[in-house]
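queue> holo job accepted (1,3-dihydroxyacetonephosphate)
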Amino acid sequence: ALVSMRQMLDHAAEHGYGIPAFNVNNLEQVRAIMLAANDTNSPVILQGSAGARAYAGAPFLRHLILAAIEEFPHIPVVMHQDHGTSPSVCQRSIQLGFSSVMMDGSLMDDGKTPSSYEYNVDVTRRTVEMAHACGVSVEGELGCLGSLETGEAGEEDGIGAVGKLTMDQMLTDPEEAADFVQKTQVDALAIACGTSHGAYKFTRPPTGDILAIDRIKAIHSRIPNTHLVMHGSSSVPQEWLAIINKYGGNIPETYGVPVEQIQEGIKNGVRKINIDTDLRLASTGAVRRFLAENPSEFDPRKFLKASTQAMYDICKARYEAFGAVGHA
Ligand code: G3H
Ligand code: 13P
Ligand code: NA
Ligand code: ZN
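queue> job finished
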């Protein structure tokens, strides 16, 4: 059944678990996520970005998610719009039937330039007013995502600030978060705590606390009723990088956020964990391997089945690691 983000994350908070929010663009991703959720009895957040709408078309994206709800009626599903760049983009998604929208006012509506605090409060407050009138939840964002190791904002594809960030920009301020929530009334808040979008988060194997866990703790204690969201939470599985590179790919050495660090975040108030890159890597690795090992196959269902299976395994592992299993 379709549920709001507020309803799903309230339950997660009450029971102390986290929910992976997977980006979806195609049938195989949606099926992999739903099959894993069904087999583990886990709640589901399916999120679509502007890039997903450009790729699949808004009606197909919407109906893929509606099909998931129809096929698995016993699984609660949040249909979430990822990284909305303006109140009008969010309004369109509300009209299409999304049960949750992200108004990312941490950047200007070009999706690149860091915005002023006043701008962020204004666009987010207006979105909440509109969304709440329709029973739709809102996720805001405060702070700019960036790797605490490299100071880089991550991929420059319109969902992250460009270039180097200061330490101040890369960590959400707890007092500002409290003011932001009071002024905007958001249901969930994406925070900057050391993660960044894409596959290139860290250049060396992360050890110890590579996220600002104390900062997460401090933010959570100031806004205990607002659900914390961690973007850029792919773990960048080394085994899939190796498979991609073994079968003709060329991806340089790189590392993601260790699952144990995400678990620390969950212990300290993180409820929604955004993952896109891991499913992309698994899908690409599985397709490369299948085609290399089966050079005479040309039925796309064969290599797409391998893709679905690889993504399924990641989804299942995340549901288990984040404690979401059995909470559907
Ligand atoms: O945070 C962004 C997601 O990874 C979506 O990426 O804009 O390429 O669809 P995309
Ligand atoms: P990753 O690139 O780490 O998968 O993050 C995805 C994300 O934050 C989508 O909003
Ligand atoms: Na989001
Ligand atoms: Zn994101």
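queue> The chain is about 45% helix and 15% strand.
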